Amino acid sequence: MDAQGRGRAGDNNVDPADQWVFDPNTGNYELRLDHAGQDDARPADRKPAGSRRAARKSGGDTDTRPLPTQRARRDEDAEGDERAGGGRAARRAAGSRMASAAAAGPASRRKRKPKASGKKKALYWTAGVVGFVLVAGCGGAFYLYQQLNGNISKVDVGVENDAVSSGPVNVLIIGTDARSGKGNSGYGDAGSVGHADTTILMHISKDRTNATALSIPRDMITDIPACPTKQKDGSTKNIPGEHGVRFNTSLGQEGRDPGCTWRTVEKLTGLKINHFMMADFNAVKDLSTAVDGVEVCAGKDINDPKSHLKLKAGRHIVKGEQALAFVRTRHTVGTGSDLSRIELQQQFLSSLIRKLKSSAFSSPGKLYDVSQAATKALTVDTGIGTANKLLDFGTDLKKVDIDKVTFATVPVLDNPDDPATVILNKTAADPLFAMVRADHTLAKGKKGKGKKAAPVKKAPPEQVRVDVTNGGGPIGSAQETVDWLQNSKAAKLSTNAGNAPAKLATTRLEYGPNQAGQAATLADWMGLPKSALKKSSHNAGDREPMKLTLGKDFKAPGTPIDAPTETPDGVQNVNADDKNVCAK
């Protein structure tokens, strides 16, 4: 990329392409950041430098910019970008506007390196478009963000977390439907101020072995909390909260910025967000083009007059406008709702991840193109608003394997008061959120060779006989639990046995082998983890009750003692490594 373009050549005027060196001993490209001595480090068969360029003065971080006009400065570059396709001479025409930057000195230009040999260069990608591409990125490509720093826009949302965290990481990824940006006038709602059209909360586990991406339906009715927003003059304006409104209005409406969506998602899920990444329609168009297309699957012929997508049943490679049409289609697939569109987006993102992870992207030129497309489409929070911070952030998260990335949709129900919207399905959503908060993966583990034990047949409520004691729960918990069991579950054989002789840190259910069916029923009602079940070695007597001791972890009857370790029933989900997903 020309140093006069959006990316900077760096403090030492080194062209980004010149930092990649082919190592004949390994068959891979290596990134050389030792500018002063890089000539000695390169193989002897390297070609001499090409033409010299006037470099733009190396600057610091990108400016903080208000929303939703974050792409305005990119439009100013659009004309120059179009001229760039005609060769370097066209780009030199912009030099007169940057004469003051010439003092930075020349930057060498070299031809794009040949493709690497058949050996696969290690690339680590954890999740999809823009945010997914950048969050875990590949180790080498992230160093190029030192040159791509000028592409990144950032917004001060009033929270600045460290780029790297020692615990789990939650990244909010937002796709806005604003019509701003080159080529976007035909998309979204004509009067949209840039709502949260697509929202994904990506949770990366503490040990960096798995990731869960929760898609939040845009038409879900929710509460939006009050939020502070930074104004152009540096002042702070507090936007009042609203109750019972569409989730997508958490961005753009009433001047809300991504910090308002951030706070809305935190309130909804109980998860603390570390960072956000946001992009508009160009992200899908540019990234899909940069990777030479993304494979998608249609389970039937698709002809959507709204999105202008026409596909025959089968597999197709889509990019640019067609890729955007695919992720925006909903009227001719599934139920025709936004929930069906979410499933298409998950299919597209999964396929994009697989392609980025493939050996086809071991060439430095291709990685550079993808990095350019991603960063030009990106707006982030100030915590990761510089190249160095993005580098640290991505390096920390690059370990997740693709088969440990799971997409899921926040479960919802039809809204009886408004058929055009949906409401949260708390029965399914609460355990899902608890599962993610507990850092449990939704990815299914590999099946072992041994036989699984047959599931225990649950006993009917009238057969569940249990004595309940309080060994650490809130005062009155034993009686409260018995009342709940008898009145809500019809377990008439439950009894309050008072206080336990000793305090317990965790809740415990003791039972005999012949009470396994009763124990299974009670554990399901109470949300007991397997660790709470203590089976004795001998059968219980004829009318002998099980013993349930409420520990310090007990909160209230009906509230799960522990987060589930299996994906709750009713939660739509798909693994990013599943190549057999097709739109129907």
TrEMBL record:
<dbReference type="InterPro" id="IPR027381">
    <property type="entry name" value="LytR/CpsA/Psr_C"/>
</dbReference>
<feature type="transmembrane region" description="Helical">
    <location>
        <begin position="122"/>
        <end position="145"/>
    </location>
</feature>
<dbReference type="Pfam" id="PF13399">
    <property type="entry name" value="LytR_C"/>
</dbReference>
<feature type="compositionally biased region" description="Basic and acidic residues">
    <location>
        <begin position="31"/>
        <end position="48"/>
    </location>
</feature>
<feature type="domain" description="Cell envelope-related transcriptional attenuator">
    <location>
        <begin position="195"/>
        <end position="357"/>
    </location>
</feature>
<dbReference type="InterPro" id="IPR050922">
    <property type="entry name" value="LytR/CpsA/Psr_CW_biosynth"/>
</dbReference>
<feature type="compositionally biased region" description="Basic residues">
    <location>
        <begin position="444"/>
        <end position="455"/>
    </location>
</feature>
<comment type="similarity">
    <text>Belongs to the LytR/CpsA/Psr (LCP) family.</text>
</comment>
<feature type="region of interest" description="Disordered">
    <location>
        <begin position="225"/>
        <end position="252"/>
    </location>
</feature>
<feature type="region of interest" description="Disordered">
    <location>
        <begin position="1"/>
        <end position="118"/>
    </location>
</feature>
<feature type="region of interest" description="Disordered">
    <location>
        <begin position="532"/>
        <end position="584"/>
    </location>
</feature>
<keyword id="KW-0812">Transmembrane</keyword>
<feature type="compositionally biased region" description="Basic and acidic residues">
    <location>
        <begin position="540"/>
        <end position="555"/>
    </location>
</feature>
<dbReference type="Pfam" id="PF03816">
    <property type="entry name" value="LytR_cpsA_psr"/>
</dbReference>
<keyword id="KW-0472">Membrane</keyword>
<protein>
    <submittedName>
        <fullName>LCP family protein</fullName>
    </submittedName>
</protein>
<keyword id="KW-1133">Transmembrane helix</keyword>
<feature type="compositionally biased region" description="Basic and acidic residues">
    <location>
        <begin position="72"/>
        <end position="85"/>
    </location>
</feature>
<feature type="compositionally biased region" description="Low complexity">
    <location>
        <begin position="92"/>
        <end position="107"/>
    </location>
</feature>
<feature type="region of interest" description="Disordered">
    <location>
        <begin position="444"/>
        <end position="475"/>
    </location>
</feature>
<dbReference type="InterPro" id="IPR004474">
    <property type="entry name" value="LytR_CpsA_psr"/>
</dbReference>
<feature type="compositionally biased region" description="Basic residues">
    <location>
        <begin position="108"/>
        <end position="118"/>
    </location>
</feature>
<feature type="domain" description="LytR/CpsA/Psr regulator C-terminal">
    <location>
        <begin position="463"/>
        <end position="554"/>
    </location>
</feature>
